[in-house]
Amino acid sequence: MKGITTIIGMVVAFASIFVGVVVLGGEIPDFVNIPSIILVVVPTVASIIAGFPMAILVKIPGHFKVLLGKESNPTEYIDKIVSLAEKARKEGLLAFEKEQVEDQLMAYALRMMVDGLDKFSVKFALEDCINGIKERHMEAISIYDKAAAYAPAFGMCATVVSLVNMLMSLDFADPEAINNLGSNMAAALITTLYGSMLANIFFLPISTKLKILHKKEIMCKTMVCNGLLSILNGDNPRVIKDYLVEQLSTADSAQFREDEKKSSDD
């Protein structure tokens, strides 16, 4: 499962901070302050709600399904496209009418091919779809990028609020107030820690992972576009395969060739 590394990384990051607190002689309860958590989390969430339309916000649960779901595999797309190319060469494009594929973009392209649209119309339609996918992905990613910027800022704001309240109530004639000065200042600084942790352990890793998944999915969608256009052009399946494999990274291309060689040897 592709999202397991994200979860492991977050858990280890949080755990390392708690372990560091203990190792340095601190106590975990001293770092738990509910009002400080509220001062950081609530304004951060509220700012996200204020900055994005509800149509985008309601998709947030789906982002976590993407993080934990199946990752796009370029080699599977290559195998499927080559299989379609071989079928088209033997049976013609009308053979795609009953073809069942999971990828929505590929299914859309096959319907256009069966309907007899020319390659330029198919190309423009697929490129529009890919651009739409990019826009939707960027909207999702921007939520976590903004939240990663808001959280530390509100952490600092909460620190200032706590310090102002502490100084306004400070009475040097009161021995108890002097004795509590250190603990009150520590409580004020905890909000900065909360904002930094929220940004760097939660929001930024999610944003980074979504960006990586975005690049891989767009690469697969581009393969669908290029591969099916090559089929429309009447290219040889072997030529199409070589063309698509060359679009992979050097390491992935080498791995694909090695797996293909092992499969042929077996």
Question: Can you characterise this structure?
Answer:
α6 runs antiparallel to α7 (119-168) and α9 packs antiparallel against α10 (237-245). By secondary structure, the chain is mainly α. The protein has helices spanning 4-23, 34-51, 54-57, 60-68, 74-91, 104-114, 119-168, 175-179, 181-232, 237-245, 250-265. The protein has one domain. It has eleven helices and no strands.
Give the class from helix and strand content and strand pairing.
mainly alpha
Whole-angstrom Rg: 27 Å
Number of domains: 1
Low-confidence stretches: none
Please give the count of helices: 11
Shape assignment: elongated
First and last CA, distance: 28 Å
Which sheet architecture does the biggest sheet show? Answer: none
- Report the average pLDDT across residues: 87
SSE sequence, one letter per element: HHHHHHHHHHH
Question: What is the helix content?
Answer: over 70%
- The total strand number stands at 0
Residue share in β-strands: under 5%
Summarize it.
The protein is mainly α.
What topology does this entry show?
Blueprint: H1 4-23, H2 34-51, H3 54-57, H4 60-68, H5 74-91, H6 104-114, H7 119-168, H8 175-179, H9 181-232, H10 237-245, H11 250-265
List keywords for this structure.
266 residues, mainly alpha, 0% strand
